[in-house]
Design goal:
single chain; alpha+beta; 6-stranded mixed β-sheet; two-stranded antiparallel sheet; 9 helices; about 35% helix; about 25% strand
Amino acid sequence: MSSKITESAVEEFAIELLEKHSYQYIYGPDIAADSETPERTSFEDVLLLEKLKTAVSRINPDIPPEAREDAIKQIERLNSPELITNNETFHRMLTEGIKVTYQKDGNSRGDLVWLIDFNEPENNDFIVLNQYTVIENHVNKRPDVILFVNGLPLVVIELKNPADENATVHSAFKQLQTYKQAIPSLFTYNGFLIISDGLEAKAGTISSGYSRFMAWKTSDGKVEASPLVGQLETLIRGMLDKKTLLDLIRHFIVFEKSKKEDKETGVITIQTVKKLAAYHQYYAVNRAVESTLRASGHIN
């Protein structure tokens, strides 16, 4: 019994820290399709559609409602058989805007719809949700903690119990691989993944092998956290700070293509790898940008 308590204690600890960073907490079953206050029409829905629609109309007030609806339909209709392809297409729409056309004064106009207000982090809706059941192809899975921005499930966090020697960070990683196979639609919209056993905590992407998951070793980019502060706490304070999270998603994720030739058949396939900057790269780039802006007189 005690192991159950400690795993949920890690979950509670993570949620409380996120609440301190002004994420709104929602208990998954409270908004499930079969609850009294549903925000999903079925367990197959991975987007919180009403929250997304509200945010999209707030962020894009000058775009007609039908064009905003069209933008949302475009992200709902990503249906390549390859998860990484859907994820890359969504990432482009998220970070570059979604192309829409509509009639204005009798003319056809092209425009962009934004799902996130990257300039004003506070103009977005940040939610931490736990016990969020997703069903796909009759398979039922329930990731530990998901962070939603404007109804989009951008971060999935898998937690293990530090008291159980079999439940390691590696077993959290393996659990996420199972989820990717079973409920890929959730991961179409994923920015990055986090695994933790309450002590160690690492982040990676949907294509990262275990060795590519990295700790986030500072909460402010100035000093490395004391080893007495758990990695999970440092990661939440540093990486999941609203401004940092949006900055990471917008500027510090790349999809790299490489050719692979099958020695036997000579068939060439293109492989895509999604990469996320490590903490020291992230802060180094931002410091360089800031000093450039300062030198050119854009910031005092």
